Amino acid sequence: MYVRGLINASGDPNAAETPEQLAHFQDRIDAEEKIEARDWMPAAYRKTLIRQISQHAHSEIIGMQPEGNWVTRAPSLRRKASLLAKVQDEGGHGLYLYAAAETLGISREEMQDQLLSGAAKYSSIFNYPTLTWADIGAIGWLVDGAAIMNQIPLCRCSYGPYARAMVRVCKEESFHQRQGYEIMTTLAQGAPAQKAMAQDALNRWWTPSVMMFGPPDSDSIHSVQSMTWKIKRFTNDALRQRFVDATVPQADYLSLTVPDPDCKWNDAVQHYDIGPLDWGDFWKVVKGGGPMNRQRIAARQKADDDGAWVREAALAYATKRSALMEAAE
Ligand code: FAQ
Questions:
Q1: CA-nearest residue, atom 30 of ligand 1
Q2: pTM as predicted
Q3: To the nearest whole number, what is the mean pLDDT of the chain?
């Protein structure tokens, strides 16, 4: 009989993983079968997914802050409505992703604790300030543009709940990218001061966006294993290159200049070259030393503290309700 997950004979999920189980699991991955929550999976596969999905969820939730900063200052009702919708979408993405991670056996509370204690990471990009309205355009254009490039392949991730969550996330990210590019178009075609504001935002967001894809392949400790498991489909550098190739012509169209003198079309390889990146700066931000790391976590902690009474009330209501239902049976 075909055993979908090849559960070990003892039925004990903590029993040592046998070579047969591991080989069968890899066969399923190679055959492009989706792994589902109740299927057998190696402990390291589960751990990698919990790490990546929870960090992705944290990024969406922390990522609401830089743009949330401009909701009350958007320049028109139309801009305000679309920015509000975008920020709400990011909150929704965080929730789908936390739900996907929960299917792997970790609780929301544990993930939240890991974020607040600094044990779990979130994307480096959200540790930069949003100084002007043009930053909202730059985030939509560049940050959501980078997110789409990274996330479209995740719709084909081997883990079913993550892959399915990503389908809807990617549709919404496309809308986000377009609203950002439209803001940049309006500013770039506006008064000289508006165009200067757009260029300044591009100057500040370009390098952090290019770095969002993660360290170069030579320093990416997880890529090889994650690609063998088809969690990741492309390396960090491959996706970074795709982003640069798609985005530089968009900057040209806006008559804005990417802040990298080495960024030039290379006819021989049919790609844009870029100059060296300061990875020391990237790691400083990842380790908590970016301009906004402390504020981001403090704001998240405050939201968690302020929401405690809602969680307590919901729990008290659910307990009371189930007691009443039991009494009625
Ligand atoms: N920031 O071996 P790798 C968005 C860490 S969502 C911080 O290459 P991996 C939507 C990495 O965790 C943006 N840390 O790791 C939005 C690892 O450390 P660890 C988030 C980073 O996992 C838009 C170490 O470096 N997207 O933008 C970063 O194979 C606008 C070694 O790296 C996702 O999370 C970084 N940028 O590849 C929301 C997508 N890069 O964990 C609001 C899903 C790497 O061992 C507004 N995630 N590190 O302690 C992924 O695709 C992957 O996890 C990568 C990293 C590509 C991010």
A1: 144
A2: 0.94
A3: 95
